[in-house]
Fold this sequence. Notes:
Chain B: Belongs to the binding-protein-dependent transport system permease family. CysTW subfamily. Chain A has 438 residues and is α/β, with parallel strands linked by helices. Chain A has helices spanning 12-15, 19-35, 48-51, 67-77, 88-97, 109-115, 194-197, 222-236, 249-264, 275-283, 294-302, 331-344, 348-355, 363-368, 372-380, 408-412, 425-437, and strands at residues 55-60, 80-85, 104-108, 121-122, 124-125, 152-153, 161-162, 177-178, 181-188, 190-192, 216-219, 268-272, 289-291, 308-310, 316-326, 359-360, 388-389, 395-397, 415-418. In chain A, strand 17 and strand 18 form a beta hairpin. The relative contact order of chain A is 0.16. By secondary structure, chain B is mainly α. Chain B is built from 13 helices and 2 strands, in the order H-E-E-H-H-H-H-H-H-H-H-H-H-H-H. In chain B, helix 3 packs antiparallel against helix 10 (218-247) and helix 10 (218-247) runs antiparallel to helix 13. The longest helix of chain B is centred in the first third of the chain and has 56 residues, at 2-57. The chains are: A alpha/beta (438), B mainly alpha (307).
Amino acid sequence: MTETRTGSPLSAGTTKGVSRRTLLKDTAAAAGVAIGSGAITGFPTIWAQNIKNVTLRQFGTGVSNLNAVADKVKEDLGFTLQMTALDSDAVAQRAVTQPKSYDIADIEYWICKKVFPAGVMQPMDVKKIKNFDKIVPIFVNGKLTPDSAVAQGTAPHTVGFVEGKDSIKFAKSATQWMTLIPTIYNADTLGIRPDLVGRPITSWTDLLDPAFKGKASILNIPSIGIMDAAMVCEAMGEVKYGDKGNMTKEEIDKTIKIMTDAKKAGQFRAFWKTFDESVNLMSSGEVIIQSMWSPAVAAVRAKGIPCVYQPLKEGYRAWGGGLGIAKHLSGLELEAAYEYINWYLSGWVGAYLNRQGYYSAVLDTAKEHMSADEWAFWMEGQPAKTDILSPEGKVMEKAGAVRDGGSFKDRMGRVACWNAVMDEDRYMVRKWNEFIAA
Amino acid sequence: MTVTAVPPEASSASAAPRGGGVRRSVLRRAVPYLQAGPLALTLLVFLLIPILTIVAVSFWDYDSIRIYPDFVLTNYEELLTSPVTWKTYLNTVKFAALTWVITLLIGFTVAYFLAFHVQSTTWQMVLFLVCTIPFWTSNIIRMISWIPFLGRNGLLNSGLISAGLIDRPLEFLLFSDFAVVLAFVHLYALFMVVPIFNSMMRIDRALVEAARDGGASAAQVVWNVILPLAKPGIAIGSIFVVTLVMGDFITVRLMSGGQSASIGLMIANEISLLQYPAAAANAVVLLAVVLIMVVAMLRIVDIRKEL
């Protein structure tokens, strides 16, 4: 098993000299020094001798495929992690059609809903996951606190467990067999230019406010754009959804009709598809209110342009991803995969993700790797006492700043809907394209 | 070994003139095929096989993650019965027509100026090369550079405002059909200039003089002498411009801010959603439409005169 993988010491993928990679590498090294090897508690050394020969191939979307993580794995665990970043559609396709081409899949929960039933992955035994008990309960029973409501859409806990070791049927409640170990998630909302909107923004309906005619934008990725559109239509009271994450044809038609009318009335300045487009639209002032992702807001602010990730009264649209293990993995490699996943939850990565403005699945361990001030800023919504630095060491927020939306509980506790894949997916995509072409 | 090898060699040597003659004539007949071979092979591997593959895939079935070899007509059915398709084709043809008219006017004027007004050959060449300067940068860069220029707070709007000509930014400049056509004209005008210039340079100057001697006005010379003789160049330029615009997707997406649709964009969307069979069906239809347009143009003008 291992012989087949020994060919690529310190994979070519991680050593190619792209500047961003090198940067990440340097910062990872710096971060490693900063944290100090003493902080990393001892990992099992039973495999220490031969595990170095293992190479795990991980693929997934760009957000969490961080080379800093691969470097740190090599440093802490000794084996090689090869990372491939693809867009989410390609990830879903490859996960199903080329199950032998990866060992670890880093996929979003809605992709998991498509992929896991194809039988190309194996569930993980939670008994082998050391920090399983500390995983944020959203991923276990769907509730952040015992009294919070379960959000609509493909909520992670609904596809988080299967009924047995060889089952491909999602379990109704938590079992011993977990499909994905959650890694990274966040709550998305609208981004605004506070200096240009001229009034407080409080609701998703503001996206279609005629006052912002020709200055609004929405993202043109059907499966996510439709959610933002649904948040708007529901907030307007125009459409009542049974489940925004699984609309009926009629609900899709109504939603698209409202968006098309707005488009024809000239509400939208542009539609964006990539991260940088949303940044440019916002920073040039072409658009002053739009769907946005949290790092894009940070990028606009980094240019010295005011931009707020505005919390809205109807709540957030959330997304989350996790690590899953390919079916073909066994023996030493499977052990390495478990070790990697345990390491992932052990704090270093969690702190890294939290510092980027995302959230990690096990908060307690991440806290140990963050300063008290960082923790208070990112997780508790308190004003920063000192400048807040990104994992790369760049100043993200000046002292005194407060995170948009506030604390972890305020943000993740107010999720209205998760990114989802609908039963009427194909119909929805067709209708969405009609909206774009209208 | 060597001893036994001698007799057959000798006999074959004696037979050589006859056999060689046959071989030579076979060779002579094969020469044209051999000469055409590399091109034929290239076209086969890089053009014919891919197109046949696309045609084949356009009949396959698919779901959200996989494609299945099959023979279904649903891809064409969904494509041709959807009002979006028709609207998008109409939109694309509109872009093509507008771009064609404008580039033709610009191309003809520029070529006419270069060919008939600039007297020295050196200057003709210098000015012609000046026309190609924009092509030293990538066309994506040339396109994107319009965005900061035309934007709401862009150079043009701030210039006009500070000159007091307008008091609020002109919104239609960017992320509109105007912006799309502007970018197309900018990108493709040269494809019109070059072939028309080439045609015009071949026009016998004596014809122009004869027309003048016959009492034709300058306008009549252009209309009755130069225009008909420049037709092959116009046709070639038109084929370039129309096919480029019909197949484009990135210009439409960037300059319309994702708000306008074109066939190319539709295909790109389908590919990104992994609906390869639908994209293939769309590509086949587009290919047919563009071929019909090209054939129509060739019917009107015989470009062989040019070649």
